[in-house]
Amino acid sequence: RDFQVNETSNGLSVELKIDKVGNLETVLDLVKQKVEQYYNQPVRYFKIQGQPDQRLKQVRYDLSFYLEEALVSGSYTQLKQALDSYQPINAKVYLRMDFIYIQLENDTHYLYEAIPRRSKIVSVNNNQGDDSI
Predict the structure, then answer these.
(1) Is the Cβ–Cβ distance between 18 and 112 less than 8 Å?
(2) Is 133 part of a structural domain of the chain?
(3) Could you tell me the sign of the dihedral formed by the alpha carbons of 80, 81, 83, 84, in that order?
(4) Domain total of the chain
């Protein structure tokens, strides 16, 4: 595994090149803990180099809508149904206090992402049934 730690204005950014893993949450939590312990600063960003194919990139794009909706509404049922519908792609989302980890795998291809959660989503105008995309 290759990695690089960079300082940002408000903490650390960690760039990783990792192979396929069984549980992205476990790996990134461990990396985060070790880096924060060594540098005595918080990890604010992860940039993970994977081996995505076109299908995984499309699933990631589609998943963004379900993820945003779940974060705003607090209802994760549709997100879970979407994750299950991507079979045979292995699609997992881990919701942590500081990051949302996305783990997508298709044969030898994989796409891993860690989205910072510190930017809170605020719904200013919640018009039911009047949303446009």
Answers:
(1) yes
(2) no
(3) positive
(4) 1
First to last CA, the chain: 39
Per-residue pLDDT tens digits for 27-84? 999 999 999 999 999 999 999 999 999 999 999 999 999 999 988 898 889 999 999 9
Domain for residue 131, yes or no? no
User: Taking the model in full, what pTM does it have?
Assistant: 0.83
The answer to whether residue 126 is domain-embedded is: no
Cα–Cα distances (Å) from 112 to 11, 18, 47, 106, in that order, read 21, 9, 9, 12
3-state secondary structure (DSSP) of residue 57:
helix
18 and 25 in contact (C-beta within 8 Å)? Answer: no
Query: Cα separation of 10 and 17, whole Å?
Result: 23
Inside any domain, residue 6: yes
Domain boundaries, position 34: 2-116
> Quick check: helix, strand or coil at residue 128?
coil
